[in-house]
Amino acid sequence: MIDMTIADKILEGLNEKQKELVRFKDGYCISSSTSGAGKTESLVRRIEYMVKVHKIPEEEIVMMTFTKSAVETFKKRLRKVGIRNVKVGTIHSLAYGIYIKEYGNKNNLIPKLEIEKLFYNMYKTKYGGNGKFDFDTILLAIGQQEAHMVKWSDRKYVPYEQTYMELPERDLREYYKAYVQLKKEKDLISFNDMIYEAIKILKKKKKSPYNYLLGDEFQDSSKLCYVFMDKLSPKNQLICGHASQSIFAFSGADLNSFINYTKTHKPCSIINLNINYRSKNNIVENYNRFESYWYGDLDIYEKAIANDKTNGIIQHFEVEDNVQEAQKVLDIIKDCRNRGMNYSDIKILYRNNSQAGMVETFLKEKGIPYEIINNASIFDLKEIQCVLNMLRLINDEEDDLAVEKLLETRQGSLSFVSKDTIKSLINFAHKNECTILEAMQCMKYTSSRTKQNIYSFLRTFETIKDNYYDEEDVCSTMEEIYKRMGIENRVKESNSEKDLVVKKAIQTILEMSKEKNINQVIDMLSSGGEVKKTRTRGLSRKNNDKVLLETLHQSKGQESKVIIMIGVKNSIFTYDPKKKDRTEINCFFVGISRAKEELYIISDYDNEFVKIMNRGRRRTFLNRY
Asked: In the chain, pLDDT over 90 holds for what percent of residues?
């Protein structure tokens, strides 16, 4: 007998689709939940309904989600309604729990350093000093095979990322085989192995540990995760996700498993949460057009409906270069401020960190408060700090702080100077009442190699200083620092994300340093670590009014009153039907669906994704800069 008083209380305030989801009890169900649809609250209410209305024991329910932060969110909300014994965890934490229960708490995870040494030695043996070695590329490629349940000996591998290192499949096969052999020889396992082991353990059990499973963000789950889920709770499952927000293919996410869930789990109910409580009507209609173009033929697709029927602002600007883009960002921020908005109402999104450099420089120059999520500021890069402190030293050879910071950047020959040597130099200068630069010339070194590296730096500094003659044309001096400190050669041939960011930062800083004297450039670059501390520690929450900058991946699950999308280029946001990877499609969707009231898109000319988004609009909203 259902207690309608408790049931009505749990269902209070929900829309009809949410109520249907909460009431669902037995069998298979998939819910495609649009942005801002109240999915988390609906899942929490469903667990509460199962426990308090259907009288299902808490211990028979498991909640599987994608991130540790989501786990804590669900646990906190469940505690508020008096539920403490429902198992909530990520796929890895749930697999780990099963693993240690079976085998005990033995620490046999394979160290990354050991894998890196193995791969590096294999690479050097085969290629010597030629080519580019990138450990993360190899490890991610192997992880993708594991996530798709592909063994090293299988004939066909799933596609994998090769942006930062050329990795032929025959080479990957050799790395994968050696990786498997290493684990076997040393009785070690990876995180994916732990899931495999958990699956093996559950296969041996006559009874599954849980009768009911709820899954969140399953558009980003791997094929391995789905197999694990079917062993964990094979009969009663409700999974939630959104195909258009699947952006982790590089780490093994299998969108096809989510899209085809209704075919692999029959009979399957579809209960979509399609009412958006976040955004204005025209912003929802805007992302509907884009989403339906790519996903409209799926049986789980349903058009989103805005709860707020009023319209916001959507504008698109085409620009020729990064300078125009940054200037347009400033214009938008100025307009928002003139209309009474706070800086914290504005969020700037981009595909990768290298795209934020010019915008950050403009914000810094105009004194606009900002914060970059995960401290990815170009001003904090060691290469930029190297240039800054070399300029400070040229300006003042007694600037000991500049020398200390130069030593910390470990660029050029300084990369071989140990921390003990740096400490000795500072102590020598203090004891002999001289500058650190003088100490570098006078101190006796215990190692001839250390002496050689220090003297090499001193010669480099003297050469740069002697060539510096015009304080109004500091760009040529900065370029010389990049070359003579070895930065240019190091990043020139590299395709790693880190070095791509450095390249972009160098271009940005040089562009912004034109027509500035040395003191103005020093002032511009001096935002580094000291300002970062002020931004993160010196501002209370009540006074935390600043523009936020973050990547599209970081913005997932977030929202903002105003969204400015930058770096929307055909070369980045593209779809190759042969590869069948929809990551860029979905990243674009994530960006345009974060806005609550206003959306601004800054792109190159004739952008294909913007054209698709704009299909069917009665009038254009294009502004050419």
From this structure: 64
The helix (run of H) or strand (run of E) holding residue 348 is: strand 346-350
Q: What is the 3-state secondary structure (H, E, C) of 254-318?
A: CHHHHHCHHHHCCCEEECCECEECCCCHHHHHHHHHHHHHHHCCCCCCCCCEECCCCCCEEEEEE
Please state, in angstroms and rounded to a whole number, the distance separating the CA atoms of residues 547 and 372.
Answer: 9
Length of the chain: 625
The three-state secondary structure class of 32 is: strand
Residues near 243 by Cβ (< 8 Å), separated by ≥ 6?
32, 219, 255, 258, 259, 295, 298, 300, 301, 586
Q: Under a CB-based contact definition with an 8 Å cutoff, are residues 274 and 304 in contact?
A: yes
Assess contact for 600 and 315: CB atoms under 8 A.
yes
Q: Which two tokens stand for residue 306?
A: 């805005």
Query: What are the C-alpha distances in Å from 604 to residues 185, 281, 589, 607?
Result: 53, 26, 17, 6
- Token pair of 30, please? 């998939």
Q: Is the pLDDT of residue 622 over 70?
A: no
Instruction: Name every residue whose Cβ is closer than 8 Å to that of residue 370 and which is 6 or more positions away in sequence.
Output: 343, 360, 363, 364, 535, 546, 547, 548, 549
Q: Which of 178, 141, 146 has its CA nearest to residue 159?
A: 141
Residue pair 275/307 in contact by the 8 Å Cβ criterion? yes
pTM of the model: 0.80
More confident residue, 159 or 177: 177
CB 372 within 8 A of CB 360: yes
Q: Residue 488: what are its φ and ψ, rounded to 5°?
A: -60, -50
**Are the CB atoms for 586 and 245 separated by under 8 Å?**
yes
Q: Which residue carries 């950047």 as its tokens?
A: 409
Nearest by Cα to 529 from 390, 391, 401? 401
Express each pLDDT in 310-335 by its tens digit.
999 999 999 998 889 999 999 999 99
User: CB 379: neighbour CB atoms within 10 A?
Assistant: 22
Angle at 108 between CA 103 and CA 110, to 5 degrees: 145
**Which secondary-structure segment (H or E) carries 624?**
strand 622-624
d(CA 300, CA 30): 8
Closest to 549 measured CA to CA, from 404, 416, 366, 354 = 354
CA 613/CA 177 separation, integer angstroms:
45
Which of the 8 DSSP states describes residue 130?
A: S
Confidence band, pLDDT 50/70/90 cuts, at residue 488: confident
Cβ contact 374:504 at 8 Å: no
Task: Yes or no: say if 280 and 311 are a contact pair by the CB < 8 Å rule.
Answer: yes
CA distance 231 to 564: 44
For the stretch 554-569, pLDDT in tens is 999 899 999 999 999 9
pLDDT at 529: 31
